[in-house]
Write a structure and sequence with these properties.
single chain; alpha+beta; five-stranded antiparallel beta sheet; 5 strands; globular
Length: 120
Amino acid sequence: MTVEDGPGWYLYGVVAAGSAVPDDVSLVSEGPVAGVAGRVSLEEFDPSVLPERLGDAAWLERRIRAHERVLEDVLRSVAVVPCRFCTVYRRRTSCAGSSPSGAATSVRRSIAFRGAWSLA
Protein backbone atom coordinates (compact mmCIF):
# COMPACT_ATOMS: atom_id res chain seq x y z
CA MET A 1 0.00 0.00 0.00
CA THR A 2 1.33 3.43 -0.92
CA VAL A 3 1.45 6.11 1.75
CA GLU A 4 0.00 9.43 0.58
CA ASP A 5 2.14 12.50 0.87
CA GLY A 6 1.44 16.18 0.50
CA PRO A 7 -0.77 18.50 2.48
CA GLY A 8 -4.09 17.52 3.96
CA TRP A 9 -6.68 19.30 6.10
CA TYR A 10 -7.39 18.41 9.72
CA LEU A 11 -10.93 19.28 10.86
CA TYR A 12 -10.92 20.35 14.52
CA GLY A 13 -14.46 21.55 14.96
CA VAL A 14 -17.42 23.47 13.60
CA VAL A 15 -18.40 27.08 14.25
CA ALA A 16 -20.81 29.63 12.80
CA ALA A 17 -19.63 30.88 9.40
CA GLY A 18 -17.72 34.15 9.64
CA SER A 19 -16.49 33.51 13.18
CA ALA A 20 -13.11 34.79 14.28
CA VAL A 21 -10.59 31.97 14.72
CA PRO A 22 -6.87 31.90 15.63
CA ASP A 23 -4.35 32.63 12.86
CA ASP A 24 -2.99 29.06 12.79
CA VAL A 25 -6.31 27.63 11.50
CA SER A 26 -8.77 28.66 8.82
CA LEU A 27 -12.51 28.56 8.24
CA VAL A 28 -14.02 26.47 5.49
CA SER A 29 -17.62 27.63 5.15
CA GLU A 30 -20.76 25.96 3.89
CA GLY A 31 -23.90 27.98 4.45
CA PRO A 32 -24.28 29.07 8.07
CA VAL A 33 -21.52 26.80 9.43
CA ALA A 34 -17.79 26.52 8.92
CA GLY A 35 -15.18 23.91 9.63
CA VAL A 36 -12.15 24.98 11.67
CA ALA A 37 -9.31 23.39 9.72
CA GLY A 38 -5.53 23.34 9.68
CA ARG A 39 -2.90 22.00 7.27
CA VAL A 40 -1.32 18.65 8.11
CA SER A 41 0.79 16.06 6.34
CA LEU A 42 -1.25 13.31 4.69
CA GLU A 43 1.72 11.02 5.24
CA GLU A 44 1.43 11.48 9.01
CA PHE A 45 -2.29 10.58 9.01
CA ASP A 46 -2.35 7.99 6.21
CA PRO A 47 -4.69 5.10 7.12
CA SER A 48 -1.91 2.58 6.45
CA VAL A 49 0.34 4.07 9.17
CA LEU A 50 -2.22 5.57 11.54
CA PRO A 51 -2.69 2.42 13.69
CA GLU A 52 1.06 2.39 14.37
CA ARG A 53 1.08 6.11 15.18
CA LEU A 54 -1.87 5.69 17.55
CA GLY A 55 0.25 3.13 19.41
CA ASP A 56 3.07 5.66 19.84
CA ALA A 57 2.32 7.39 23.16
CA ALA A 58 4.52 10.42 22.43
CA TRP A 59 2.96 11.01 18.98
CA LEU A 60 -0.54 10.47 20.36
CA GLU A 61 -0.06 12.87 23.27
CA ARG A 62 1.40 15.57 21.00
CA ARG A 63 -1.48 15.31 18.50
CA ILE A 64 -4.22 15.15 21.17
CA ARG A 65 -2.78 18.20 22.93
CA ALA A 66 -2.65 20.09 19.62
CA HIS A 67 -6.28 19.12 18.87
CA GLU A 68 -7.40 20.27 22.31
CA ARG A 69 -5.35 23.50 22.14
CA VAL A 70 -7.00 24.54 18.87
CA LEU A 71 -10.47 23.84 20.27
CA GLU A 72 -9.73 25.78 23.47
CA ASP A 73 -8.29 28.71 21.47
CA VAL A 74 -11.39 28.84 19.26
CA LEU A 75 -13.70 28.50 22.27
CA ARG A 76 -12.23 31.69 23.76
CA SER A 77 -14.12 33.70 21.15
CA VAL A 78 -16.94 31.52 19.77
CA ALA A 79 -18.94 28.36 20.49
CA VAL A 80 -17.48 25.31 18.77
CA VAL A 81 -18.75 21.80 18.11
CA PRO A 82 -15.66 19.58 18.38
CA CYS A 83 -14.93 17.01 15.71
CA ARG A 84 -13.54 13.55 16.20
CA PHE A 85 -9.77 13.28 16.72
CA CYS A 86 -7.88 12.56 13.47
CA THR A 87 -10.56 13.80 11.06
CA VAL A 88 -8.38 14.50 8.02
CA TYR A 89 -9.30 15.32 4.42
CA ARG A 90 -7.29 15.45 1.22
CA ARG A 91 -9.02 18.62 0.02
CA ARG A 92 -9.80 21.78 1.97
CA THR A 93 -13.32 22.01 0.56
CA SER A 94 -14.18 18.57 1.95
CA CYS A 95 -13.93 19.99 5.48
CA ALA A 96 -17.15 21.95 5.01
CA GLY A 97 -19.03 19.67 2.68
CA SER A 98 -21.88 17.35 3.33
CA SER A 99 -19.60 14.32 3.55
CA PRO A 100 -20.37 12.01 6.50
CA SER A 101 -17.94 13.83 8.79
CA GLY A 102 -17.85 17.28 7.15
CA ALA A 103 -18.70 20.41 9.12
CA ALA A 104 -22.31 20.73 7.99
CA THR A 105 -23.07 17.07 8.71
CA SER A 106 -21.37 17.25 12.13
CA VAL A 107 -23.58 20.12 13.19
CA ARG A 108 -26.75 18.48 11.85
CA ARG A 109 -25.93 15.30 13.80
CA SER A 110 -25.22 17.23 16.99
CA ILE A 111 -28.54 19.03 16.73
CA ALA A 112 -30.45 15.88 15.81
CA PHE A 113 -29.19 13.96 18.85
CA ARG A 114 -29.61 16.67 21.43
CA GLY A 115 -31.94 15.86 24.29
CA ALA A 116 -33.76 17.59 27.06
CA TRP A 117 -32.40 16.84 30.51
CA SER A 118 -34.07 17.52 33.81
CA LEU A 119 -33.49 16.64 37.42
CA ALA A 120 -36.38 15.19 39.37
